[in-house]
Amino acid sequence: MYILDQEQCIGCGTCVAACHNKALELSENLPVHHADKCNWCGHCLAVCPRDAIMIDGDGYNIEDVEEFSLLTRPTVQQIRRQIMMRRSVRTFNEEEVTDAELAYILEAAKYAPTAKNGQGNRLLVITTKEGREELLARSMEIIEQIGRETADSAPGLSAFFMMKSKMYKELGEDGLFYQAPVIIYIFADSDIDGAICAATMMNMVEAQQGLGACYLQLAADPFNKCPDLKAAYEIPAEKKCVIAIALGHTDEEYFSSVPRKEVPITWK
């Protein structure tokens, strides 16, 4: 709920000007809140110079709010370097991902932006060996099924799926999770929201020394193909599995960035 501390509020109107949904209006030098227009984005709280606005209850916790200044922002050079250093890691060592490391990553998902602040993302986090093996086996069954069903309509895709299944069945090769100790699935109401959530978590992975991760597009297909798999993991039927992330510690070290082609840009 929206809470205004009238003693702290100075009626400056900053929150009113910042509210793009017009959920606030200034009346007698105090902002009046219209809940029917609010999407609870918290922008009013963030811009208030007097700490006079709170959003609390109904799933929100005002204790989550942290104060910061421009001095706490990472520099352009730091962000640039992090982007250029990111690598897709598919080789993991035996070191466990700690609860603290995982907590930072999951917190990043919480703060990932969503359309109209819908916050419709949902995660499935697999951290046990038994859980990974069970889901891997079930996923490979569905991947083989997809391969058979697409043999005529998409022979190239079918061959890829069947190859993954064969390597798993005959050699025990994990071509889905790459034996990562942690797998995070992202389910969402839209592809865009889910992709942004995954990218936001990846940024936090890169910020933690020794951790590596890889996007797993193939891992999403079994959940989207098989409603029973969603039901087994208590995922709402309407949620789409957008992507998954393989996560763990790695011994790989990187000493430079790599070259990339220029992105075509149209200027007007």
Query: Based on CA inertia axes, which overall geometry fits?
Result: elongated
Question: What is the percentage of strand-forming residues?
Answer: 15-25%
Order of helices and strands: EHEEHEHHEHHEHEHHE
CATH topology of the largest domain: NADH Oxidase
Query: What value does the Rg take, in angstroms?
Result: 23 Å
Please list the strands of the largest sheet in the order they lie side by side.
Answer: 5-6-8-7
Helicity level, as a percent range?
A: 25-40%
Q: First CA to last CA: what distance?
A: 44 Å
The figure for the number of domains is: 2
Number of helices: 9
Structure overview:
- The protein is of the alpha+beta class and 268 residues long.
- The protein folds into two domains: 2-64, 2-Layer Sandwich (Alpha-Beta Plaits), CATH 3.30.70; 77-249, NADH Oxidase (3-Layer(aba) Sandwich), CATH 3.40.109.
- The protein is 37% helix and 16% strand.
- The chain contains nine helices and eight strands.
- Strands 5-6-8-7 form a four-stranded antiparallel beta sheet. Strands 1-4 form a two-stranded antiparallel sheet. Strands 2-3 form a two-stranded antiparallel sheet.
- The mean pLDDT is 95.
